[in-house]
Design brief:
The complex is a heterodimer. By secondary structure, chain A is mainly β. Chain A contains no helices and 11 strands. In chain A, strand 9 (87-95) and strand 10 form a beta hairpin. The termini of chain A are far apart. By secondary structure, chain B is mainly beta. Helix content of chain B is 0%, strand content 56%. Chain B is globular, with a radius of gyration of 13 Å. Classes of the chains: A mainly beta, B mainly beta. The A-B interface holds A 32, 34, 36, 41-46, 49, 51-52, 90, 94, 96, 99-102, 104-107 and B 4, 6, 40-43, 45, 48, 55-56, 90, 92, 97-98, 100-109, 111.
């Protein structure tokens, strides 16, 4: 079975500071990993995804994530937080073979302090 | 155009009412999904359609009835709901069900309140 664990349900950063949202996965087969963002009262938007190839993945809005197999991690980072980054962030995993159900983490709410 | 639209945005219904949620996409996607999201929780998969046929039903109560009239449209018919069914209902689509690492595109959701 596949799963993701997001450490920290709430993260607060100052505007301009580094954003680091943590995600660890569990999967018996090579995973495909996603980060989605959800702004208040909206649906989910894909930030970035890792399938195969380069382990450092760049996404939209200046976010990036690095797939580290040895640490089973896929942490999301952004060098400098903007007020507009305040939202809920979900890490998700899917695996190959059969129907690739997406399993979401419990989410991390990012607060950006002016 | 990577947009998935959902109507209505908000819906209030009584436990004896019948209502429907609508989802539409014009990206040529052949897989469509319904998710339920409770407050401060991740989305939970309800149904998956592939090529207009129901592929996955995640043991959803029969008071929720999905329908896929054509490749662009997905409905969710609601009848005799309970207050605990109040949630944000999200629709999503992807190019195909079986493609590895496929991105799902989400609509803005319908916020449902059952009284």
């Amino acid at each position: 079975a596949q799963s993701v664990t997001q450490l920290g349900s709430h993260v607060s950063v100052s505007e301009g500071a580094l954003v680091l949202l943590r995600c660890n996965y569990s999967s018996s087969v090579p995973p495909y990993l996603f980060w989605y963002v959800q702004y208040p009262n909206q649906g989910l938007q894909l930030l970035l995804k890792y399938t195969t190839g380069a382990t450092l993945v760049k996404g939209i809005n200046g976010f990036e994530a690095e797939f580290k197999k040895s640490e089973t991690s896929f942490h999301l980072t952004k060098p400098s937080a903007h007020m507009s980054d305040a939202a809920e962030y979900f890490c998700a995993v899917t695996t190959s073979g059969g129907y690739q159900k997406v399993t979401f983490g419990t989410g991390t709410k990012l607060q950006v302090i002016p | 155009d990577t947009e998935v639209t959902q109507t209505p945005k908000h819906l209030v219904m009584g436990m004896t009412n019948k209502k429907s949620l609508k989802c539409e996409q014009h990206m040529g996607h052949r897989a469509m999904y319904w998710y339920k999201q409770k407050a401060k929780k991740p989305p939970e998969l309800m149904f998956v359609y592939s090529y207009e046929k129901l592929s996955i039903n995640e043991s959803v109560p029969s008071r929720f009835s999905p329908e896929c009239p054509n490749s662009s449209l997905l409905n969710l018919h609601l009848h005799a709901l309970q207050p605990e069914d109040s949630a944000l209902y999200l629709c999503a689509s992807s190019q195909a069900l079986s493609r590895i690492g496929e991105t799902q595109y989400f609509g803005p959701g319908t916020r449902l309140l059952v009284l």
